[in-house]
């Protein structure tokens, strides 16, 4: 994988959208959380598919046009972008159910967008699952039924991250090829937040006259 940006780097006044997808056990959630941690500043929203579908909605996965999660996730991401937040969206996000909402979201977003797919073999996803600090009680046969191979969105500039790329390199690659590493916060918090201003002043201390 070459370290080329998915789209043009972040321009002034444009919220940035990152989409990190992959099969269960591919490392997408850990990667997304570390990218957010490395950004350090406020103004970067993280929308996790499992949090919305499994925790907020308690909705089963699978097909069906009556599923609420795809629309709710797209609405949450759009609302955050409209509010000036850079956004990381992560999840399995199978194209069969999420493809059209995601492609529509990407097409309508006027700012920079960077899409990544964690291309990890089924055998490696099972191995990584077993190494989790708190493995989900699921058998490999069930994981096999979830596995969708290289399930790409097919949008311009979509980048495939191979399984042999180390975790630190993946995080650094996403930070820099997306433009997030250089992207200034645009959201009301911290740009117009009294508490953020007070904290910044306390950190820097009084200026010398």
UniProtKB/TrEMBL annotation:
Domain of life assignment: Bacteria
GO molecular function, one term: kinase activity
Keyword Transferase: yes
The keyword Transferase is annotated on this UniProt entry: yes
Record Pfam families: AAA_33 (PF13671)
Keywords, sorted A to Z: Kinase, Transferase
The protein, known as: Putative kinase
